[in-house]
């Protein structure tokens, strides 16, 4: 019985795929805070030159450095697994496959970009990286990558997750990083939030403001900022996931998936799996591609497409994206890695051009789906990943009802072994669905900059 498809070290992709080269309609440019078109050199205080070049690149394929491949090869290529037990449980004619990114040292897909970001910083002489993290997966991944290249690492972690997930902090400390609850008293941005809202649960937007400020405060150039999602170069690095999956589906005798599902917060996990297949869809393939977000933080399904800041304090460039407003403070749900107010510009562009079908699911259904998956397939997934699992179950049940064979591919973006508090609360009946009210949405959208995206 064919359960999983693995690739050899020699089959590890040696180039990343850049969707910007193939997206049908021209991408809108990022803007400086004053509304002028952002020049790449304006990012030099935050990012090293190689990453700035990748951010603006229109090249279809970009080589992966050997030093990066040597580290990625410790766990990559990751397996593609057929979820036969889940298929039996659901009595579905669908064939379900998952790309298992939980086997990385940090337990998620995040090291796929943390390693190259740390590498490019190292070769230009950076000594210290600052960053934000939601649930802690990105912060732990960058801490791991920084340790591989001898870099210092400072992480600002959204306070609600910092308090609920203490062992993420321990992971970061083990790899030599410092971790601070955000908002913190260490930065002007953090102090401003605490002055107005002393009990603030924090948000990724606030944590980004703190990390950016901490990087800019070092005028020596020894400190750079690293971002775990949203920007083009981050999504680029993650495409190694989908490129491997294409080869592995062929080993199962599958031509291509009918449906692709992945959770989406800022966009990196989703982009990593889907972008190589979006290329196929642009070329004429019929593939239903579904990004799944929390109902409590529904940027793609309820937010407008607009120019907005990537952080709360307005220190970052203005990006064209689906957004809930940069002052949006999400509810402290357990899927901390998906609680970002905006969506990656490239993912937003793909959705705007009809290449994607976004969905939003509430957390009770997600935890229920995660338990079904754990009891059938054995893996306890992260609360973020549970959104993908919930949508996969919806798709598989629909295939059963319609008596339709189909191939479903989804991204298992990370394990939930450090997220068991959420499962404990679910079993105790303490997990509730949190809906974003129209009143709260209107309030957060009132913060949008007065810059209008072209039609």
Describe this structure in words.
There is one protein chain. Helix content is 40%, strand content 15%. It is of the alpha/beta class. The strands form 4 sheets. A 7-stranded mixed beta sheet has the order 1-4-5-15-10-11-14, with helices on both faces. A 4-stranded parallel beta sheet has the order 8-7-6-9, sandwiched between helices. Strands 2-3 form a two-stranded antiparallel sheet. A hairpin with an 8-residue loop joins strand 12 and strand 13. The longest helix has 19 residues.
Q: Over the alpha carbons, how many angstroms does the gyration radius reach?
A: 20 Å
Mean pLDDT: 93
CATH-defined fold name of the domain at 4-8 and 65-107 and 237-444: Rossmann fold
For the record, what CATH class of the domain at 4-8 and 65-107 and 237-444 applies?
Alpha Beta
What's the N-to-C terminus distance?
A: 52 Å
Strand arrangement in the largest pleated sheet: 1-4-5-15-10-11-14
Q: Mind telling me which CATH architecture of the domain at 4-8 and 65-107 and 237-444 this is?
A: 3-Layer(aba) Sandwich
- The number of helices is 18
Low-confidence stretches: none
The structural class is alpha/beta
Beta content: 15-25%
Shape annotation: globular
Largest sheet: 7 strands, mixed
Helix share, percent = 25-40%
- Count the strands? 15
Q: Which properties best describe this structure?
A:
about 450 residues, alpha/beta, 18 helices, seven-stranded mixed sheet, Rossmann fold, 15 strands
């Amino acid at each position: 019985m064919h359960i999983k498809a693995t690739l050899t070290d020699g089959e590890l992709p040696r180039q990343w795929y850049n969707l910007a080269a193939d997206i049908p309609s021209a991408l809108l440019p990022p803007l400086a805070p004053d509304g002028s078109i952002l020049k790449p050199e304006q990012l030099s205080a935050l990012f090293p030159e190689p990453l700035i070049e990748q951010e603006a690149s229109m090249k279809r394929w970009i080589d992966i450095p050997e030093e990066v491949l040597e580290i990625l090869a410790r766990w990559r290529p990751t397996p593609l697994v057929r979820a036969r037990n889940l298929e039996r449980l659901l009595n579905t004619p669908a064939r379900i496959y998952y790309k298992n990114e939980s086997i990385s040292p940090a337990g998620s897909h995040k090291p796929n970009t943390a390693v190259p970001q740390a590498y490019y910083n190292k070769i230009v002489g950076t000594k210290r990286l600052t960053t934000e993290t939601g649930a802690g997966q990105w912060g732990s991944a960058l801490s791991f990558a920084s340790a591989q290249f001898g870099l210092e690492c400072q992480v600002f972690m959204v306070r609600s997750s910092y308090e609920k997930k203490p062992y993420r902090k321990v992971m970061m400390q083990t790899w030599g990083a410092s971790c601070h609850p955000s908002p913190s008293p260490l930065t002007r941005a953090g102090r401003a939030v605490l002055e107005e809202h002393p009990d603030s649960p924090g948000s990724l937007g606030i944590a980004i403001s703190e990390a950016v400020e901490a990087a800019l405060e070092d005028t020596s150039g020894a400190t750079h900022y690293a971002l775990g999602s949203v920007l083009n170069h981050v999504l680029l690095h993650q495409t190694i996931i989908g490129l491997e999956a294409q080869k592995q589906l062929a080993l199962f005798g599958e031509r291509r998936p009918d449906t692709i599902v992945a959770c989406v917060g800022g966009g990196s996990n989703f982009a990593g799996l889907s972008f190589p297949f979006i290329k196929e869809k642009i070329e004429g393939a019929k593939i239903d591609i579904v990004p799944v977000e929390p109902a409590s933080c529904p940027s793609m399904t309820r937010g407008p497409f607009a120019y907005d800041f990537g952080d709360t304090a307005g220190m970052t460039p203005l990006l064209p994206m689906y957004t809930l407003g940069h002052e949006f403070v999400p509810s402290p749900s357990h899927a901390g890695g998906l609680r970002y107010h905006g969506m990656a510009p490239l993912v937003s562009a793909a959705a705007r051009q009809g290449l994607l079908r976004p969905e939003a699911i509430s957390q009770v259904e997600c935890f229920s789906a995660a338990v079904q998956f754990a009891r059938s397939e054995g893996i306890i997934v992260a609360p973020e990943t549970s959104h993908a699992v919930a949508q996969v179950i919806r798709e598989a049940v629909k295939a059963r009802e319609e008596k339709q064979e189909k191939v479903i591919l989804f991204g298992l973006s990370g394990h939930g072994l450090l997220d068991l508090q959420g499962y404990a609360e679910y079993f105790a009946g303490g997990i509730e669905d949190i809906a974003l009210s129209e009143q709260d949405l209107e309030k957060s959208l009132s913060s949008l900059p007065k810059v209008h995206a072209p039609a």
